[in-house]
Structures are given as structure tokens and as C-alpha cells.
Design brief:
Layout lengths: L1 H5 L18 H16 L12 H41 L1
């Protein structure tokens, strides 16, 4: 989750506030762990691309086709499961 928050086409600076007091030891250690994790994050910048209306319509058409295909798969699975439960219930009754 942190990686998506720090990503993008900009630089990010993280300032950690820690305390030398023993009372705040656990919070300081937690803050330092967080800083270490944040330091390891590497993102690759991407060029923002503007798509034409034709490209957007093509993408929308592909997504609509995929949704139709997935709905057909769900209908098939539901039908198979209904047949299975029907046969299984008859076996238990007999």
C-alpha cells in the first residue's frame, strides 16, 4: 500500500521524528522500521498517455466482450452445480 502512495512522477521526501528518550523507545523503533521500509521502495515513472476516443471505445469493447465471456462461464458453472446437486440429492434419497 505504501508503494502506491509514494509512486508517481514526483519526488518524495520523508522526515522521521525520533526521540532519544527511553520512554519513547518503542515508538522510535517503529518509526525507524517504517523509514527503512519506505527507503526500500523503488518506483519507475511512467509517461502519462492521452488516448483518443477511438482507442477508448476499443478498450471498452474488449472489456464488454470479456464481461460477456465471464458471465457465460458463471452461467455454465451454475448449471453444472445445479445438475450435480440434483443428482446428488436423488442418490441420497434412494
Amino acid at each position: 500500500m505504501l508503494q502506491e502512495s509514494l509512486g508517481g512522477n514526483s519526488r518524495t521526501v520523508l522526515i522521521l521524528n525520533i526521540s532519544p528518550s527511553l520512554i519513547n523507545r518503542e515508538e522510535t523503533l517503529s518509526t525507524l522500521r517504517f523509514g527503512r521500509q519506505a527507503k526500500r521502495i523503488v518506483n519507475t515513472p511512467r509517461v502519462n498517455k492521452d488516448r483518443s476516443p477511438a482507442e477508448l471505445l476499443a478498450i471498452l469493447g474488449m472489456r464488454d466482450a470479456e464481461i460477456a465471456r465471464l458471465r457465460a462461464q458463471v452461467r455454465l458453472i451454475v448449471t453444472i452445480m445445479a445438475c450435480f446437486f440434483f443428482v446428488f440429492s436423488k442418490v441420497l434419497v434412494v
